[in-house]
Amino acid sequence: MTSNPYQDDRGNKDRTITNPSGSTMTAATGTDHEMNTGHAFLIGDSMTGGYGKTGPDILHDCTIAVNRGEIAVIVGPNGAGKSTAMKATFGMLHLREGSVRLGGEDITDLTPQARVAKGMGFVPQTSNIFTSMTVEENLEMGAFIRTDDFRDTMAQVYDLFPILKEKRNQAAGELSGGQRQQVAVGRALMTQPKVLLLDEPTAGVSPIVMDELFDRIIEVARTGISILMVEQNARQALEIADKGYVLVQGANAHTGTGKELLADPEVRQSFLGG
Amino acid sequence: MDFLNAIVALSNFVLIPAIAYGSQLALGALGVTLIYGILRFSNFAHGDTMAFGTMVVVLFTWWFQSMGITFGPLPTALLALPFGIIACALLIVGTDRVVYRFYREQKAKPMILVIASMGVMFIMNGLVRFIIGPNDQRFADGERFIISARDFKEMTGLREGLAIKTTQGITVVVAVIAVALLFWFLNRTRTGKSMRAYSDNEDLALLSGINPERVVLYTWLIVAALATVAGTLYGLDKTFKPFTYFQLLLPIFASAIVGGLGSPLGAIAGGFVIAFSEVTITYAWKKVLGYLLPDSLAPDGLVQLLSTDYKFAVSFAILVIVLLFKPTGLFKGKAV
After folding, report:
1. Nearest to B100 by CA among B159, B152, B145, B42
2. Within an 8 Å CB–CB cutoff, is residue A131 touching chain B?
3. Which residue of B has its CA nearest to A131?
4. Rounded distance, CA A129 to CA A142, Å?
5. Which H or E run includes A43?
6. More confident residue, B173 or B291
7. What domains does chain A contain, in order, with CATH numbers?
8. What Gene3D superfamilies does its record include (chain A) (predicted)?
9. pTM higher than 0.90 for the full model?
C-alpha cells in the first residue's frame, strides 16, 4: 500500500473505476532536468574508464557535451577528473563503457591523431608549444596534416592574436606565459578544427592576461568553433560558459548553463567559495 | 718579420690542422646529435657507421682507379662518395628495421637503446674488418698540396712555410657545403621542420599529425650521409683504419656533448672546441714562442703540454669541465 493519497482507492473495489492489477507502463522522467545532449556536437557519453587497460576507473558514467559554436566548461575540485574527462573525449583514455561522438559519428575507437583529422583540436595544459621553433613555425607545424594552402588560416590566427604576428620570427619558448598560450591555441586552430579542447588555458598567467585569454576564447567560439575547456578559475569560466559541468570524483555532480551553476547555492558553496 | 713567421708557423701547425680536424669532428658530432635529438639515444655505433661508409668509398675508389677514372686534381674518393652514402644508408636503415624499431615499439628506455647500439657497433666493427681487413688503407690521390711549404716560402720570402693539403681544403669546403645543406633542410623544408618539431616535443608532434616513422627514416638517411662524408674526409686527411674510426667515437661524443646534445649548432661549435684544444695542447710551442719572445726568454724545452699520445685525455678533460659547469652544453642541449 502506498502512502500516496491519490493512489488510495479507499476500499473501492469497483472494477469499472480501478484496475486492480495496476499499471506497469508508468511514465517517469529520467533526471528531472534537461540534459541537452540531443544536438550536442561533441559528446562523451556515459564514459567510464581510466588510464591503461588495467588501471583503476577514474571516470564513472561521466557525460560531457558541447553544442556547435558554444563554450562548455568543466570545473570541479582538484583530482575530480576534469582533465581526464576531456582527454577521454580526445581518445587519450581507455574507455570501458560509454562512447564519444562527434557530429553524430561514433569516434570512440579513433586515435587522437585520427580525431585531429576529423576536426578536433587539442591544447594540452603543459608543453603545448614547440619551444625551440619560431611562432610561425609552430603554426606551420599545427597545419602539418593540411595539404592545401593554409596562409588564410594563418592570417586569421594573426588577426585573432595580433601579438603573435609581431613576434612571428621569435622562438616560441622566449615568449611570456600568456603569449605561449596564444601560440598553443593558434597552433591548434591551424587545422581549422570544428571543436577545440583547452586544458586549463589560463594556468599560471596573471589575472589581466587571463581576462584577455577568455576574451579571445569567446572570439574563437563566435567563429562557430565549439569549445570545451577545463578551468581552475571556475567563476570566470562559468561566466563565459554556455554550459557548465561540475565533476566530483569522476562523475557528473551538477550540470547546467553557466548562469544556473553560478546561481546554484550548492555549487556556490562547494566550488565557488560562497 | 718574426711576428709574421710566428703567425705562419701557428697557422701551419695549429690553425689549419685544427680547422680540418674540427670540421671532421663537427660532421661526426652532427650525426650523433641528430640521432640523440630525434631517436633519443646516444648511438655508440656512429664511429663504425663512419667506418662502414668510408670502407665502401675506399672500395669504389679503388675500383674507379683500376678503371682509370680519376677526378683530375681532386681525390677520386669524392666521385665514390655518393655510392658510399647509399650503401651506408641501406645498412643503417636496415639496422633500424631489424634492431631499433623493435625497441621503439616497446617504448624502451634510452639506456636499452644505447646498449643495443653497442651491439650494433660490434657487428659493424666486425663487418668492416671482415670485408677490408684491420690494416691501414690509403686511398687519397690527385694533387697533394694546394700550397706546399716550399712554394709558400718562395712566394713570401718568410722563413716559415705554410702548407695547405688538398685534403684539408676539401674537408673544409665539403663540411661547409654539408652543414649549409643540413641547416637549409632543417630550417626551410617541411620535412626538416617536422624533424625539429618531433625532436622538440614528441607528443605535440604526434598531435599535429607528424608521422614518427617517417621522421626516423629521414634522420637515418641524413646520418648516413653525414657519417660517410665525415669518415671519408678523415680518411683522406689521414688514412683509413677501422680501429681509428672506433676511437674517433670518443672525441665525437665529446664534441656533441660539449656543444649540447640535440643542438646541431652546438655540435659544430663542440667539434671545433675539441679539435682546437686537442691540437693546441699537444702542439710543441717552442717555435712560435721562439719567434714571439725576446731571445732571453726563448724556451729551451719543446713547450708541449701533453704528448700527442694523450690527445684523447684532452677531449675528456673538456667534457668533464663542461659537464660540471654547464651540464646542458654550450648551446643548451638536452641534459644527458
Report:
1. B42
2. yes
3. B200
4. 10
5. strand A40-50
6. B173
7. 36-118+237-274 (3.40.50.300)
8. P-loop containing nucleotide triphosphate hydrolases (3.40.50.300)
9. no
Cβ–Cβ under 8 Å, residues A72 and A66:
yes
Out of A117, A127, A141, name the one closest to residue B197 (CB): A141
Q: Are B235 and A170 in contact (CB under 8 A)?
A: no
Who's near B218: CB < 8 A, 6+ residues apart? B191, B195
Count: domains in chain B: 1
In angstroms, the separation between the Cα of residue A137 and the nearest Cα of chain B is 8
* Terminal alpha carbon distance of chain B: 49
Distance from CA of B247 to the nearest CA of A (A): 33
Question: Which positions in chain B touch A124 (Cβ < 8 Å)?
Answer: 203-204, 207
Q: Hey, are the CB atoms on B196 and A133 less than 8 Å from each other?
A: yes
B241 neighbors B134 (Cβ within 8 angstroms): yes
Q: Which domain range does residue B67 map to?
A: 2-249
- CA-nearest residue to A142 within chain B is B208
pLDDT tens string A100-154? 999 889 999 998 889 998 999 999 998 899 999 999 999 999 999 888 899 999 9
The phi, psi pair for B217, rounded to 5°, reads -60, -45
Whether B270 maps to a domain, the answer reads: no
CB contact (8 A) between residue B208 and residue A116: yes
| ipTM for the predicted complex | 0.82
Nearest to B208 among A127, A132, A142 (CB): A142
pLDDT per residue over B162-173, tens digit each? 899 999 999 999
A114 touches chain B (CB under 8 A): no
Q: Is residue B125 part of a domain?
A: yes
Residue B74 lies in a domain: yes
Give the chain A residue whose CA is nearest to the CA of B262: A132
* Ramachandran bin of A49, using left for φ above 0, alpha for ψ from -120 to 50, beta for the remaining angles: left
Does residue B162 lie in a domain region?
Answer: yes
Model confidence band, residue B336 (pLDDT cutoffs 50, 70, 90)? very low
Q: Which of B183, B202, B208 to mutate to test the interface with A (most CBs of A within 10 A)?
A: B208
Q: Which of B32, B54, B195 is nearest to B114 (CA)?
A: B32
User: Nearest-CA residue of chain B relative to A189?
Assistant: B208
- Dump the DSSP string for A68-104: TT-EEEEE-STTSSHHHHHHHHTT-SEEEEEEEEETT
